[in-house]
Specification:
The complex is a heterodimer.
Chain A (H helix, E strand, L loop, with lengths): L1 H49 L3 H6 L10 H9 L2 H32 L5 H10 L5 H15 L6 H4 L6 H12 L3 H9 L4 H12 L1 H16 L3 H6 L8 H11 L4 H36 L1
Helix pairs in contact in A: 1-14, 3-14, 4-8, 4-11, 4-13, 11-14, 13-14
Chain B lengths: L1 H7 L7 H33 L1 E3 L3 E4 L3 H8 L1 H33 L5 H13 L2 H11 L6 H8 L14 H9 L10 H27 L3 H9 L4 H29 L3 H11 L12 H11 L3 H29 L5
Antiparallel strand pairs in B: 1-2
Helix pairs in contact in B: 2-14, 3-14, 4-9, 4-11, 4-13, 5-9, 6-12, 9-11, 9-12, 11-14, 13-14
Classes of the chains: A mainly alpha, B mainly alpha.
């Protein structure tokens, strides 16, 4: 009797379990797919619109009759986009280099060197994390003006060539490198600088790439600060340039979409290539925070 | 834990050469941080105590603060900011937790989904904010076309100063339903939620991954169902992540600026419009700094905002100290 009862019961349970499980699966995938569509729709719409004619935009037609590549050339020529891009690339690269040099040096000193007042200074560094950017924007603007840096590249680079948060991240990483390595290096007569360059930096490649990415995103997407400290098109980065294009060409939606595509697509491609490092970096910064 | 153990390790006394080297190593960072992060704190206070149009004019004590705290414009901007914070942070966290939780189950294409959700975060808010402004264009935007195609009333979105509850009340014929954030502000909130959900979900995923699997196994043996497992294992163990993200989201919401700037300007031509219903404290600050250079007042606004953020952070910390559960 037992022998027959158990399979029968199991079959019933399995069947209802199966129905419930597949319903749950269905709902889960539906939520995920709807979420993905919402996340992507603005980009898809932007790219589609960038190929439309003025008439197609005005009439509210969803798909263009033909792909008007010409929109891109027209947008590119309507504003000094080449200059904006070059400015942004130059500012981003110099900011990353500066941020890494100051960050690695300071993080190493805080992690591995012994000097008086080290922990107090580090605490003072961390205290500045509390201060919101809004509070520092105005005084920094006056400082920049006082230094005679108004409307220059250095005004957009130097203030971001060191970051407490990045120093903190690098320091955490450096501290996890076993101290025995340093003791061994010291026996071989290695200096701090040699050790830093040939042992610490290669071992910390993941952390350094993360910091470089964070620095790049911050620099590339900067808007308020460059808007405030620049006055000429020659000095302005892409985000500020895009904004003036948006206000000047308010009626030419298809051209604005072409411009927005030119700004957004490179960074998306960049993200897709570096995304593993990227999400890892974001996740660790999140958990460490 | 490793770090804690290493920090406790006995430190050898510092040697003179190393001490000098140490200072040299931190010097470049110290100069930059000192000039652009440390000094401005004090300078901001100094500016706020003066009548200061493009140049400094004279010491006025707390007059600028008095002006801020008695200005109806400031209180309006604070109201808008609070609407904005309350309307974005909880929804953003709930949606991202839902997505992260589903992704954490054994789903196919997890990496693809996660990559897609993260896309908005890597784009600049200027470019994507402008795209949103055009998507919500009342005449040619796809959102209104979609609403019309399913038989709903098209809206004026970023041009609509009336409150969302007023609009609902009119639509459904409920007279007492009134006020709330303007539809323009709600449109901005939709953008913000779209922008941040993928980022939050990524961090939630990392947090979910850190929960030991044995706990779920033990719970299953005890006969706990999915919801019980979520309620009694996932949520408590995820509370540090939830706390971290809510703090980041809240501070970010208080400081929001770029997308409000571009969306309102692209749609209506005025930053903080229509009728100042999207003028947050940061936009109000910007108006007093960039549009009309009254630096003393602007510095006072920034300082008041700083104090507000500080109070909210401390409050949240206090709540967290009662509710957040740490595994160690």
């Amino acid at each position: 009797m037992r022998m027959t009862a158990i399979p029968a019961r199991r079959a019933r349970v399995t069947w209802s379990w199966y129905v419930r499980a597949s319903t749950v699966q269905l709902i889960m995938y539906a939520v995920l797919i709807i979420g993905a569509l919402i996340a992507m729709f603005p980009f898809i719409w932007m790219i589609i619109t960038s190929f439309k004619s003025y008439g197609e935009v005005a009439s509210g037609r969803f798909f263009p009759r033909e792909l008007r590549w010409w929109n891109y050339i027209e947008a590119w020529n309507a504003a000094p986009f080449a200059r904006y891009f070059m400015n942004s690339i130059f500012i981003a690269i110099t900011t990353i280099v500066g941020d890494l040099v100051t960050g690695v040096l300071a993080a190493y000193a805080f992690a591995r060197m012994e000097f008086p007042g080290r922990d107090t200074i580090f605490f003072l560094f961390l205290a500045t994390l509390m201060v919101p950017g809004e509070l520092t924007v105005l005084p920094n603007f006056l400082t920049i003006r006082w230094l005679g840096w108004y409307n220059t590249y250095q005004a957009q680079i130097i203030p971001f060539a060191a970051s407490v948060f990045h120093i903190f991240l690098l320091r955490q990483f450096f501290m996890n490198i076993p101290r025995d390595y340093w003791d061994a290096a010291l026996l071989d007569g290695c200096t701090h600088f040699r050790y830093l360059i040939s042992v610490v930096v290669p071992l910390s490649r993941a952390a350094i790439v993360t910091v470089a990415l964070l620095s790049f995103i911050g620099s590339w997407n900067a808007f308020l600060w460059p808007l405030i400290v620049t006055s000429s098109e020659k000095m302005r980065p892409i985000q500020v340039g895009l904004r003036s294009f948006v206000t000047e060409q308010a009626t030419q939606t298809q051209l604005m979409m072409a411009a927005a595509t030119m700004v957004i697509v490179p960074i998306i491609i960049f993200y897709l290539f570096t995304q593993k490092q990227f999400t890892q970096g974001i996740a660790t910064t999140g958990l460490k925070g | 834990m490793v770090q804690a153990a290493m920090a406790k390790k006995r430190r050898p006394p510092w040697r003179r050469g190393e001490a000098v080297m140490g200072f040299i190593y931190i010097l470049p960072a110290t100069i930059i941080l000192g000039v652009f992060h440390f000094w401005p704190m004090f300078y901001a206070v100094y500016i706020s105590l003066h009548r200061w149009r493009v140049v400094r004019q004279g010491f006025v004590g707390l007059e600028n603060y008095e002006w801020v705290l008695t200005s109806p414009k400031f209180w309006n901007s604070l109201k808008v900011t609070v609407y904005y914070v309350v309307g974005t942070v909880p929804i953003q966290l709930a949606l991202s937790l839902l997505l992260a939780y589903i992704l954490f189950q054994k789903v196919r294409g997890r990496e693809v989904f996660r990559t897609i959700y993260f896309l908005p975060y890597v784009t600049s808010t200027i470019a994507s904010g402008a795209v949103f402004a055009w998507m919500f264009n009342p005449n040619t935007g796809p959102i209104n076309q979609f609403l019309a195609s399913i038989g709903l009333t098209p809206q004026r979105w970023l041009l609509e100063p009336r409150g969302i509850f007023t609009l609902m009340g009119e639509a459904w014929g409920i007279p007492w339903l009134q006020g709330g954030p303007s539809l323009a502000l709600v449109t901005i909130m939709i953008f913000v939620i779209w922008f941040w959900v993928g980022y939050d979900a990524t961090i939630f995923l990392a947090g979910l991954g850190a929960i030991p699997y044995e706990l779920y196994e033990a719970a299953q043996i005890d006969g706990a169902n999915r919801w019980q497992q979520f309620r009694h294992i996932t949520l408590p163990l995820l509370s540090p992540t939830i706390f971290f993200l809510s703090l980041v989201a809240m501070i970010g919401a208080f400081k929001a600026f770029n997308h409000i700037f571009i969306m309102t300007e692209a749609a209506a031509g005025t930053v903080g419009g229509p009728l100042n219903t999207t003028t947050t404290v940061t936009v109000f600050f910007f108006q007093n700094f960039y549009d009309t250079p009254t630096y003393g007042k602007a510095a006072a606004i920034a300082f008041v905002l700083f104090i507000i953020i500080l109070i909210f952070s401390l409050l949240q910390n206090w709540v967290a100290s009662k509710r957040v559960f740490y595994m160690e």
